[in-house]
Amino acid sequence: MSRDVTVIRSGRGWQPLELAELWRYRTLLWVFLLRDLKTSYKQTVLGPLWAVLPPLLTTALFTLVFGVLLGRGNEPSAPGVPYALSTLCALLPWRLFAGCLTGIGNSLANNQSLLTKIYFPRMIFPLSAMLMPLLDAAVTFVLLIGLMLWYGIAPGVTLLAAPAFIGLALAAALALGLWFAPLSATYRDLGMAVPYLLNIALYLSPVIYAAASLQRALPDWAVTIYWLNPMACAIEGMRWSFFNSAPLPWGSVAGGAGLVFALLVGGAFFFRRMERSIVDVI
Question: Alpha helix (H) ranges present in 205-229?
Answer without folding.
Answer: 211-215, 220-226
